[in-house]
Amino acid sequence: MELKIEKKEKNLLSIRVYGETYTLLDPLTDVLLRMDGVEFAGYDVPHPLKEEGVLTVRTRDGVSPDKVILEALNKLKAEFGKIKPDVEQQLKKVG
């Protein structure tokens, strides 16, 4: 995965993410929208045949978009980490 900062302002950050589309950007946007201090979070996949998307986050005054993105990634990692033991347990029952 490769990243490129498209736009960076005090309360706005747009990042082009190469090698990812809906799989990462949709759940990340969902987590961001549930966070305090986030006014807007969304993504765009400019071309359906290219593996890239643009994540945009706008925050309220005093809230760093950089920090909320990192916090959202940590929350997402924790959420998916909780699923693994449940899946492993169910697979042992079946197999």
UniProtKB/TrEMBL annotation:
Reaction catalysed by this enzyme: RNA(n) + a ribonucleoside 5'-triphosphate = RNA(n+1) + diphosphate
Residues in DNA-directed RNA polymerase RBP11-like dimerisation domain copies: 14-84
InterPro entries recorded: RBP11-like, RBP11-like_dimer, Rpo11-like
UniProt keyword list: Cytoplasm, DNA-directed RNA polymerase, Nucleotidyltransferase, Transcription, Transferase
One Pfam family per UniProt: RNA_pol_L_2
Single GO MF annotation: DNA-directed RNA polymerase activity
GO biological process: DNA-templated transcription
GO cellular component: cytoplasm; DNA-directed RNA polymerase complex
Enzyme class: transferase
Protein localization: Cytoplasm
EC number: 2.7.7.6
Family to which this protein belongs: Belongs to the archaeal Rpo11/eukaryotic RPB11/RPC19 RNA polymerase subunit family.
Function field: DNA-dependent RNA polymerase (RNAP) catalyzes the transcription of DNA into RNA using the four ribonucleoside triphosphates as substrates.
Subunit composition and interactions: Part of the RNA polymerase complex.
Name recorded for this polypeptide: DNA-directed RNA polymerase subunit Rpo11
